[in-house]
Amino acid sequence: MKVSGALAWHPEVAMSQEEIDDFLSGRWVARLATIGPDGYPHVSPLWYYWDGHCVYMALTHTRRPCKHLRHNPRCSLAIDMDDRPLMGMRSNLAKAVIITGEAELTAVGSEQTVTIEAGPWQGAYRPEQVVAMIGSRYPLSSRDGALGFTLESYRELFSQPGIEHSQLFKDNVGRVVTKITPKKIQAWDFSKAPIGTTDNA
Predict the structure, then answer these.
(1) Closest CA to 50 of 74, 29, 25, 15
(2) How many CB atoms lie within 10 A of CB 100?
(3) How far apart are CA 15 and CA 13, in angstroms?
(4) Would the pLDDT of 143 be above 50?
(5) What is the pTM of this model?
(6) Domain range for residue 17?
(7) Is residue 87 part of a domain?
(8) 166: left (phi over 0), alpha (psi -120 to 50) or beta
């Protein structure tokens, strides 16, 4: 008796370009790995936007990932989901996209523009526009039926007097758009190889 299924990447579970685009359009968190001056990797969880060709993120210039990328633009990121700890191995529902590439940094307030290569937002934008676009993908709004602290609440908070003295404001000052051009993409969907048993002939 032979057990089929997938616990590691192989061609049977590879994702197509369409499947990658569909998956990366979700509101996942990307884990960005950068290389420090000491040679050790550093991993940061970040929001992102995927246009079908490149990944865009909004870093803060004082944080380590941005400093690392200025020193060395080579990086990797992982975007994944795994239902198996909750649902068990029968569904084998686990998807991931691993991207290796190089980053290009454009600071908010600079004279440069950021070109989104493809997708519905294709075009050239000021870096502050790209930061806002990335941020708009994640928070729920009252239009979505969300209660509590919504996207509208967040915008209202930033319009209040004295907000510039808060840590929240300081954490959002000095943003740098990070555009990652992939050199290599590896993607898998383990549910494409259903677990089961077959008899050996």
Answers:
(1) 25
(2) 15
(3) 6
(4) yes
(5) 0.85
(6) 8-138+174-194
(7) yes
(8) beta
